[in-house]
């Protein structure tokens, strides 16, 4: 997985067709949900918000990619997996990053009180 810093993105859209799994959206499609609490959002909106926040956080921690690289060996395996946030933790390097990620993870909807 790679991340795009929403603060650095100029919203030109060039990267969108380059993503082989359609995982990139403009932040115009996310900005209106960022301030809403998760219990008011649909599942797809919660995932957009989660990944927007992950991009914001990890774009500051991970190095910039300045040249095209060979795809990861596991790219095809993960291509069609749903809820990739469950697999994101597998790529983290140290315990601090793992704990940071856990703070982003969406709440389990079965734990919500109505």
TrEMBL record:
Gene3D superfamilies: 3.30.70.20. Residues 1-29 form the 4Fe-4S ferredoxin-type domain. PROSITE patterns: 4FE4S_FER_1, 4FE4S_FER_2. Keywords: 3Fe-4S, 4Fe-4S, Electron transport, Iron, Iron-sulfur, Metal-binding, Repeat, Transport. Pfam families: DUF3470, Fer4. GO terms for molecular function: 3 iron, 4 sulfur cluster binding; 4 iron, 4 sulfur cluster binding; metal ion binding. Its cofactor is [3Fe-4S] cluster; [4Fe-4S] cluster. The keyword Cell membrane does not apply. It comes from the Bacteria. Ferredoxins are iron-sulfur proteins that transfer electrons in a wide variety of metabolic reactions. This is Ferredoxin. It comes from Candidatus Mesenet longicola.
